[in-house]
Design goal:
The protein has helices at about 10-25, 35-45, 70-75, 95-100, 110-120, 175-180, 230-235; strands at about 5-10, 30-35, 50-55, 80-85, 105, 125-130, 130-135, 140-145, 150-155, 155-160, 165-170, 185-190, 190-195, 200-205, 210, 215-220. With about 240 residues, the chain is of the alpha/beta class. Strands 2-1-3-4-5 form a five-stranded parallel sheet, sandwiched between helices. A five-stranded antiparallel sheet has the order 11-10-9-13-12, sandwiched between helices.
């Protein structure tokens, strides 16, 4: 799941800087950049972005359009995105807090501060009982552990493959899932964790394993062969 965002900023250099930093993050989806808040409203209503980067002018009247964005979204029954204020001064910080902004960045935007904000937005993953709970903003996904076939690393995120054929992106490393998933999930490769209950065959000579009801073959890495004995024990105990 990618995090969508819109930039509303009069200063073109600031808008380009925000875009360039986020463009290097695979998790983020750019929906558009606007000089005037009014021009952004149709995009906000149609696409419902997760984040608005909202630039404030040096002199701001409380009645200006910037503060009317949330009212317009509420009027159209659109969920309020997370708003990050971009300002040359801290003068508007109190009013921004009243408006419910999630962060306040001073211009020129510091890359480190923006990356800190990005890290806060990474998908929160929790494991409870027989359900994997994925939380991102107001989007809650509940995945039955029994429906999780295997997990595959994708850089710093993980793709979760379900028995239904659905693939779900989670912005946590494979190492995180290795620590949090129950014991029937075994790391067999630098890029794969597999649900032991779906394994029908392990071909050690060819370094592959076969999954129930599928022609898919997952690689078994030599560096994880120490996990094979545990994997076999789990399969026999199921």
């Amino acid at each position: 799941m990618r995090i969508s965002y819109v930039i509303i900023e009069r200063d073109v250099k600031t808008a380009i800087r925000i875009h360039d930093i986020l463009d290097e993050q695979a998790d983020f989806l750019f929906l558009g950049s606007f000089v005037e808040a009014e021009k952004a409203i149709p995009t906000l209503l149609e696409n419902k972005p997760d984040i608005i980067f909202l630039g404030l002018p040096a002199a701001l009247d409380s009645n200006q359009t910037e503060w009317f964005l949330t009212a317009e979204l509420r009027r159209n029954q659109i969920p309020i995105p997370k708003i990050v204020v971009l300002s040359e001064t801290q003068e508007f910080a109190y009013q921004a807090i009243k408006e419910g902004v999630v962060d306040y960045l001073l211009k020129p935007v510091d890359t480190t501060e923006l990356l800190k904000f990005i890290s806060k937005l990474q998908l929160k993953v929790e494991f409870t009982s027989n359900t994997l709970f994925l939380k991102s903003y107001g989007d809650y996904r509940f995945i039955k552990i029994a429906d999780l076939l295997y997990a595959k690393a994708d850089n710093n995120s993980t793709d979760l493959y379900l028995t239904s054929g659905e693939k779900i992106a989670a912005f946590k490393t494979l190492k995180h899932f290795e620590r949090t998933l129950p014991p029937q999930f075994v790391r067999i490769h630098n890029s794969y964790i597999v649900n032991a209950q779906y394994i029908t065959r392990i071909h050690i000579a060819n370094n592959i394993c076969y999954l129930k009801g599928s022609k898919l073959q997952l690689p078994v890495s030599k560096s994880y062969k120490n996990n094979l004995d545990r994997l076999v024990e789990i399969i026999l105990s199921l």
